[in-house]
Task: structure prediction
Amino acid sequence: MTKRFLTPSGTAFTALRDVDLTVEPGQFCAVVGPTGCGKSTTLTMVAGLDRPSAGTVRVGGHPIDGIASGTSFMFQTDALLPWKTVIANVALGPIFHGTPKKTAYADAREWLRVVGLAGFENHHPHQLSGGMRKRVSLAAALINEPSILLMDEPFGALDVQTKAIMSNELLSLWDQTRPSVIFVTHDLEEAIALADRVVVMTAGPGTVKAVYDIDLPRPRGAVQEIRFEPRFLELHHQIWAALREEVERAYARTAPPSGSAGPEGGPS
Amino acid sequence: MSAVPLNREPGAGIDAAGGQGAADEGAIAAGARGRARRRRVLVWAARAATLVIVIGGWQLLTSVKIVDPFFWGQPSGIVRQLNDWVRHGTTYGSLWLQIWITFKEAVLGFIFGVAAGVVAGVLLGMFRFLAEVASPYIKVANAIPRIVLGALFTVALGLGTPSKVALAAVLVFFVVFFNAFQGVREVDRNLLANARVLGASRLAIIRHVVLPSALTWIIASLHVAFGMAIIGAIVGEFLGAQKGLGLVIANAQNNFNPNGVFAAMFIIAVLALTAEGLIALLERRLLSWRPRSQTEVAPV
Result:
């Protein structure tokens, strides 16, 4: 799969080149890579929001064309409708699919209970904290009972404690419903703690550099504690070696050109 | 700064400020309320003083003939004129009838203009192709001084209500259209992508995402738009009518009666303020989901 964009100056810009990535049903796959490597672009194409310039995205063996049903997407920033109450936001998915309002609201109430927000049904999003809004987004994504859950740095904007709590809850909800997950992040620890498989992407044009299977046993328990396991540290060390090269390459490209007093400006 | 001293004991440490008990909380709140009340009184007093100075100065200057009341009118004359209209009616029938005619024209023009503006704004905002095709024509139409269209409407639609409604609607249309268009363009891409992934049809996206999002912009434009509707109705009557406040003004002008012009102006202002109040009410109702702005929460 390749994605090219036409830049404003009229030249073609290759964001992704020959990305080949397979996610097994029910697998939790994390994608890490330096900024600007096309992680998010990959997700939008899996969701069917955008088309590849060359190649295909297949879900369950069928190439997708347009919005794939059975897919849910959790964005980095809030995608809740600020003018709707929490419950109306969660009920949107079923309502868009033609479910009667009453059933949709009953479902939504149930999902809000699952994510621990019972009693907040009639609040508006701006009345909730960042972590609570993420829970609402999670409920809104899961209520459609997706077979594929796409997450684009969903907890990127949260503080460390809230992020840990949300990660644990995501794991337990995933364990109950078992969708395939593609989880984009720049946080390697988060990726290893959550995923079955970690994909490292190269600096732009993005392509798959290496794939690591994470053999930490499940259920994994608290993500805060697993990062002290010897096996976790070993994997982290191994994957970081691959990731670091790409991060440095991406950094060198955005850093001022040599000749200035940059940290890498010395003679080599 | 604070009118309520914090009674902090010297050397009591940091937590002394927090350990003052509920009685002091109440005193602080009461002090803050008192300051807010004094401020409100002061503002209203200053407003009243402004009114007295302007109206009184006008009356005084015209009484001692520094300013000629024949050309500039006189507050007492305006009151007398209003009183006369209320009691004996205008040249064209009762005052209430004139107000009703103008109000009806403005409201009808407002409704048609807003409806057309929202529909056109949403359509062009949603479909880029349409917007690209229409944009030069809209620019040209917007560049025409639209008041001139009033002359055309009077010829084509006659001296009755329709010509005034048409002019008011055209004036309202452009204000609402540009805001609706911009509002639709400004819809958060994330919200759109999210709705699409959740399975929303194009119509559902318009109804649940685009319209509510653009509503902030559209409602903001309604305040200006109603003013435009009144301008349309009055100018339309100016250009040719058998009834209405615009005709009353035109007649006062022809009779060298500045008090009549001011009196009619005063009535129109009351009309516009009433409508403004109604729109503000609508705004509060439709946009109740919005977080309170900073200014509504007064710092203590």
The domain at 75-289 of chain B is CATH 1.10.3720.10 (MetI-like fold). Chain B is about 75% helix and 0% strand. The longest helix of chain B spans residues 21-63.
